[in-house]
Amino acid sequence: MREKHRQQQARQQDSDAQKGDKAGLEGRSFLYVGGRDCQVAHLRQIASSYGANLIHHDGGLREAVSRIDNVLPSVDCVFCPIDCISHDACIRVKTGCKKWEKAFVPLRNGSKSSFERALQSMSQGDSTQ
Questions:
Q1: Residue 29 CB-half CA count within 13 A
Q2: Are 114 and 81 a contacting pair, CB within 8 Å?
Q3: DSSP character for 39?
Q4: Are 68 and 81 in contact (CB under 8 A)?
Q5: Are 12 and 58 in contact (CB under 8 A)?
Q6: Contact 88, 114 (CB under 8 A)
Q7: How far is CA 99 from CA 21, 48, 102, 126, in A?
Q8: Where do the H-state alpha helices sit in the chain?
Q9: Closest listed residue to residue 94, CA positions, set 59, 43, 50
Q10: What end-to-end distance do the CA atoms of the chain give, in Å?
Q11: Per-block average pLDDT, block size 10, for the chain (129 residues)?
Q12: pTM to 2 decimals?
């Protein structure tokens, strides 16, 4: 019986620690430029699990690249998967991030795990700019 109680406490502590790690991003807003359309819902869910809001721009496939300029002032940080973004969109994002003093986070690829690692790193207080 005591062993079962210890296991429950350990699970609760792990859960609390995980929630504490994610709390650092509560209420923040992120822009994700590029990537694969089929993953946007998953990326939003990941951001939501950290208490953050995710705005997606397709990087110029269907949306005007100039829309990035309108969204940048309202976000805290911009993520760009370097394997799934147009050159023009990437340059616009980098320039806009410098202008508006926003964090720019290039991601190795457009995978969900790459995005989640970046969020985890941010929630633990690592610098992103």
A1: 7
A2: yes
A3: G
A4: no
A5: no
A6: no
A7: 30, 27, 8, 22
A8: 2-22, 40-49, 67-71, 87-100, 112-123
A9: 59
A10: 50
A11: 58 49 83 94 96 94 88 96 89 95 96 96 71
A12: 0.79
